[in-house]
Q: What sequence folds into this?
């Protein structure tokens, strides 16, 4: 069971309280503060190995959060757990999204409720074009028929913004795409599907400066006061071109510190060693 | 002389494809089997039992009843090798055919005990101008967690006949690397069968063959995956010159229950003359969903660009060819840590290609 | 004691019944008289009648194949009943079994095509297409007619080509075909004529007896080109359950032929079809095949590359569901220099179905500088199905480039998760991946066939339909 979570609970309560204070400050500033995602004491195993040992996280509408942490700290597991990837087993805690408990919902139902995840390694689907795929997914997410002409126009517009070659529209999804093209394609999907919460898992890793700027631009295009973004990353590059509200440090399956953009700067300078023990 | 039909594939296909079995004519089979005395054992001799009593064979495949029965009933060498935790040197058994020792019917049983590690080398060589006959069976039981390397080197001349059946049984987490060097024999007919019933059992089989004149190689390799997460890798590299001919029949069979098993088969034949012939049947049989199977097979002549490159560095054609063949075999030859054996094999390659 | 006796009595009754049926079948066995009767009804010229009788001899001598799917359920003594015209074949849509009707409704096959399913009125809808094309092409000398008419009106062309490409001694079912063939299409495209619109031979079940042993003979003369689509686009419902058709394609020097088939026979069919093409100098034949129906299928189209620089491509997919054993593949023989072949074969096994890819690539001594590249991919959708790959690669000379690749596996959980994270249900995700898997084949088909193929995939993946 989730022993680790119990032992650190007092500390987490303090963190939660800290968060609340900040949220209240935030509310005053933006007049928002409606809870979108709430993760409570989440413990997750991957292949019988304990990865997440009691995660607590709250995200309100209109916020951009960042989870930072060294390799193997449980960042990707967090993203996969929110979307309930069956390869990961939840052994404790729960996840509330938009007022509903989604802890054990099926992945597609979670997606249709408005959660999107940009994959670190997007899958290749031979024989299914980007256009057809997105049209189909959009239909599933909105539950409404997609008007092909308007849809293609929308797609074209987004692709231009993201500096993507429009020829990619007709190519098989991710097949033969370079690393950067795959990441941009994930951002494109985020824009088209327009979720309430976008989780971006290592979207910035392996990208050059220009590509990171493009991705940041995509995030800014997407972002409004009714949705939220959770960025998961092991480095701080993307934070140079994007303003974020909260930074959480994840080490060894636990969030050990929460702060603002300043915290990211500190980590950029000093690394994670301070938080490791 | 009667027609011999042997080495049947596990699954038949159209008769017109001439690959379901091999038909041989004019094979002189010794009626009376004399003793075979020219055998040497090197390394940890204490683990080798020369007069093994467990000789009755019940092979799943084998080359056919005649050959299996001959080994079962009339073997003139019955050997058992026990690899236990105390083995400290590799064990090598050399069979040398000469005028007095012309026919060898060997029945070799290898048992790898739990947790044991070891290497066994079995080598067959012939004196010049001897017409030898070899019919042998190697049975291996790899018990839990054992790790075994087995090297079988057929360095016989091309007047002889070589018949060989190998059957391996795998317990949980056993790991067996087989390296087969198949160079000799007017006819060299091999059946290899691995029953991977242990969970996480693993078999790597690497073969090199090299043929000239009218040599015929018939390789019938079968891997049955039964254990969860079991794996087999079959890698066959060969080259044929003159009128040499090769039949490769490779079967990877994913049996029901072998969840998450993997199997890979790669067969590559270098044709060094326009009359050499390569026939291949790389089969994948699958009755389990959660598996991954791949096979690839290719044939063709030595790349002209590479050849030109090597020759531009001052090598004559024959030398360049040798270099290319050696390069192709190198990866597999690296499995052989015994330098003497390795050099002997390299010498053979040079001789065959001369 | 009493119980034993009762069983004995019962068995006796059973035995008598059996014997009766056996006698009955003997009468129906394939005889010289029956062949002569067919020949008479068909108004065969003498040479054709003699040909049929010779084929009957060969048929009686040949054995059933010793490999491949078990076809022992096929009672060869009953062949006569397959051959003879059967008035019992249903003529009305109402007689078609309910499950097949609903399949058609789901497919959205137009009402017109529904009618043709039972073999009545089919010609009308096909004729319209047929005539409109004929008008256009007739001036250029293109011939497109049924096989019986061709035997009468183009005797020399037919005699020179009929069963020369597929000889009667090829295998037992070809010999059977030679003896009892009936119906089918004949196409001749004269030198240099390019036929732009595909010729479509929808199910040409003009009269009931023409269905099962139809003969297709296509000659594309020098420099001409044609795309021919075989008419199994919609499932036929046939009372009889043996299909032993024969397709012979002659692609002369510099000519091009594409032969497309979507096969969706009813699932009680034994489909033992034989297809072969002889390809001339710098000519090309392409095969596009989708195989969905049949209980058992043994189908291996073959290209014989006889001319220098001849080319062939094979693009095929098989989808086997419950109770189906689809043993399909491709054969190619390279007989001349600079020839090339390209194979892209895919299969999907589901619900206990079995797919086998069986093939031959032979590069003969004379075929210097030839190339052959084969790729097979098999998808297993559950753990009760079977997928086998049995390719024979016979390389007889050195100046060749030959490669063969095969893969077997399931749809990865990661891929399913990726699609589900975009809002697709697990079933939708799988269907999308399977459609993508089949896309290289469906893209080679005319739009309406491709749409139909996708519908078929959806139907096959839909649990509601068996």
A:
């Amino acid at each position: 069971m989730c022993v680790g979570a119990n032992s650190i609970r007092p500390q987490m309560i303090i963190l939660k309280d800290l968060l609340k204070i900040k949220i209240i400050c935030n509310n005053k500033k933006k007049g928002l503060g409606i809870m979108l995602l709430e993760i409570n004491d989440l413990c997750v195993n991957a292949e019988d190995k304990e990865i997440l040992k009691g995660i607590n996280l709250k995200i309100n509408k209109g916020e951009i959060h960042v989870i930072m942490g060294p390799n193997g700290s449980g960042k990707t597991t967090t993203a996969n757990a929110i979307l309930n990837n069956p390869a990961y087993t939840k052994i404790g805690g729960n996840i509330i999204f938009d007022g509903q408990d989604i802890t054990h919902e099926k992945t597609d139902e979670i997606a249709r409720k408005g959660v999107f995840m940009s994959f670190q390694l997007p899958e290749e689907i031979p024989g299914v074009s980007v256009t057809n795929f997105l049209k189909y997914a959009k239909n599933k997410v909105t539950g409404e028929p997609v008007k092909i002409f308007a849809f293609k126009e929308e797609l074209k517009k987004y692709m231009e913004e993201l500096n993507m070659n429009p020829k990619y529209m007709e190519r098989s999804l991710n097949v033969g795409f370079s690393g950067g093209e795959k990441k941009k394609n994930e951002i494109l999907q985020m824009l088209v599907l327009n979720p309430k919460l976008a989780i971006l898992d290592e979207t910035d890793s392996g990208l050059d400066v220009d590509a990171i700027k493009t991705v940041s631009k995509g995030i800014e295009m997407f972002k409004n006061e009714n949705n939220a973004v959770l960025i998961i990353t092991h480095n701080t590059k993307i934070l140079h071109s994007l303003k974020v509200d909260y930074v959480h440090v994840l080490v060894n399956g636990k969030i050990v510190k929460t702060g603002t953009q300043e915290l990211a700067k500190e980590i950029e300078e000093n690394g994670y060693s301070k938080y490791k023990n | 002389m009667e027609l011999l039909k042997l080495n049947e594939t596990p699954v038949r296909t159209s008769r017109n494809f001439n690959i379901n079995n091999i038909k041989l004519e004019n094979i002189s089979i010794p009626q009376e089997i004399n003793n075979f005395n020219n055998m040497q054992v090197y390394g940890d001799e204490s683990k080798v039992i020369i007069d093994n009593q467990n000789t009755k064979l019940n092979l799943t495949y084998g080359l056919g009843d005649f050959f299996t029965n001959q080994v079962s009933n009339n073997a003139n060498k019955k050997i058992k090798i026990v690899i236990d935790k105390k083995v400290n040197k590799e064990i090598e058994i050399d069979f040398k055919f000469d005028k007095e020792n012309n026919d060898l019917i060997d029945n070799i049983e290898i048992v790898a005990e739990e947790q044991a590690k070891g290497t066994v080398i079995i080598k067959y060589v012939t004196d010049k101008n001897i017409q030898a006959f070899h019919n042998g069976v190697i049975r291996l039981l790899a018990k839990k967690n054992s790790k075994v390397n087995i090297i079988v080197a057929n360095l016989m001349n091309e007047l002889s006949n070589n018949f060989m059946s190998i059957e391996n049984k795998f317990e949980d987490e056993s790991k067996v690397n087989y390296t087969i060097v198949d160079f000799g024999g007017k006819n060299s007919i091999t059946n290899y069968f691995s029953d991977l019933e242990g969970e996480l059992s693993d078999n790597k089989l690497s073969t090199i063959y090299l043929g000239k004149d009218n040599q015929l190689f018939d390789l019938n390799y079968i891997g049955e995956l039964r254990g969860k997460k079991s794996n087999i890798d079959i890698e066959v590299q060969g080259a044929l010159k003159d009128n040499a001919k090769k039949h490769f029949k490779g079967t990877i069979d994913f049996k029901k229950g072998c969840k998450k098993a993997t199997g890979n088969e790669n067969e590559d034949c270098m044709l060094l003359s326009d009359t050499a012939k390569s026939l291949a049947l790389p089969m994948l049989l699958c009755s389990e969903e959660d598996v991954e199977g791949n096979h690839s097979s290719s044939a063709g002549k030595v790349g002209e660009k590479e050849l030109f490159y090597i020759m531009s560095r001052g090598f004559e054609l024959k030398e360049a060819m040798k270099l290319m063949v050696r390069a192709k075999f190198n990866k597999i030859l690296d499995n052989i840590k015994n330098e003497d054996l390795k050099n002997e094999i390299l010498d053979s390659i040079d001789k065959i290609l001369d | 004691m009493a119980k034993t006796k009762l069983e004995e009595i019962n068995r006796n009754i059973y035995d008598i019944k059996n014997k009766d049926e056996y006698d009955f079948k003997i009468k129906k066995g394939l005889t010289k008289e029956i062949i002569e009767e067919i020949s008479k009804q068909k108004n065969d010229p003498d040479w054709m009648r003699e040909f049929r009788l010779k084929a009957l001899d060969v048929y009686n001598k040949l054995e059933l194949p010793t490999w491949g799917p078990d076809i022992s359920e096929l009672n060869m003594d009953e062949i006569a009943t397959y051959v003879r015209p059967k008035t019992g074949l249903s003529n009305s849509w109402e007689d078609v079994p309910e499950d097949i009707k609903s399949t058609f409704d789901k497919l959205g096959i137009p009402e017109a095509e529904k009618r043709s399913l039972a073999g009545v009125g089919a010609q009308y809808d096909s004729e319209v297409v047929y005539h409109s094309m004929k008008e256009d092409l007739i001036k250029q000398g293109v011939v497109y007619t049924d096989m019986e008419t061709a035997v009468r009106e183009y005797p020399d062309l037919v005699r020179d080509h009929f069963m020369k490409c597929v000889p009667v001694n090829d295998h037992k079912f070809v010999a059977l075909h030679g003896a009892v063939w009936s119906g089918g299409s004949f196409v001749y495209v004269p030198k240099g004529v390019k036929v732009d619109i595909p010729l479509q031979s929808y199910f040409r079940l003009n009269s009931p007896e023409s269905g099962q042993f139809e003969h297709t003979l296509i000659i594309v003369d020098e420099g001409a080109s044609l795309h021919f689509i075989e008419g199994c686009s919609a499932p036929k419902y046939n009372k009889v359950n043996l299909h032993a058709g024969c397709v012979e394609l002659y692609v002369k020097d510099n000519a091009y032929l594409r032969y497309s088939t979507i096969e969706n026979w009813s699932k009680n069919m034994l489909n033992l079809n034989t297809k072969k093409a002889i390809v001339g100098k710098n000519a090309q034949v392409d095969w596009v095949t989708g195989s969905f129906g049949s209980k058992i299928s043994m189908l291996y189209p073959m290209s014989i590359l006889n001319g220098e620089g001849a080319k062939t491509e094979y693009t095929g997919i098989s989808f086997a569901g419950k109770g189906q054993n689809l043993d399909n593949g491709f054969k190619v023989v390279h007989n001349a220099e600079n020839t090339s072949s390209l194979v892209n074969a895919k299969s999907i096994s589901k619900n206990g179905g079995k797919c086998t890819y069986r093939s031959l690539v032979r590069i003969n001594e004379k075929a210097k500088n030839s190339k052959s590249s084969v790729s097979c991919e098999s998808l297993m959708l559950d753990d009760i199905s079977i997928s086998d790959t049995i390719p024979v690669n016979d390389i007889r000379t050195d100046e060749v480039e030959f490669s063969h690749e095969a893969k077997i596996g399931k749809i990865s959980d990661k891929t399913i998760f990726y699609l589900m994270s975009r809002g697709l249900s697990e079933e939708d995700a799988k269907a999308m991946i399977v459609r993508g898997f089949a896309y290289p084949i469906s893209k080679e088909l005319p739009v309406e066939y491709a749409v139909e193929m996708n519908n078929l995939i959806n139907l096959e993946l839909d649990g509601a339909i068996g």
Notes: Chains B and A do not touch (no CB pair under 8 Å). The CA atoms of residues 24 and 119 of chain B lie 34 Å apart. The first strand of chain B starts at residue 4 and ends at 6.
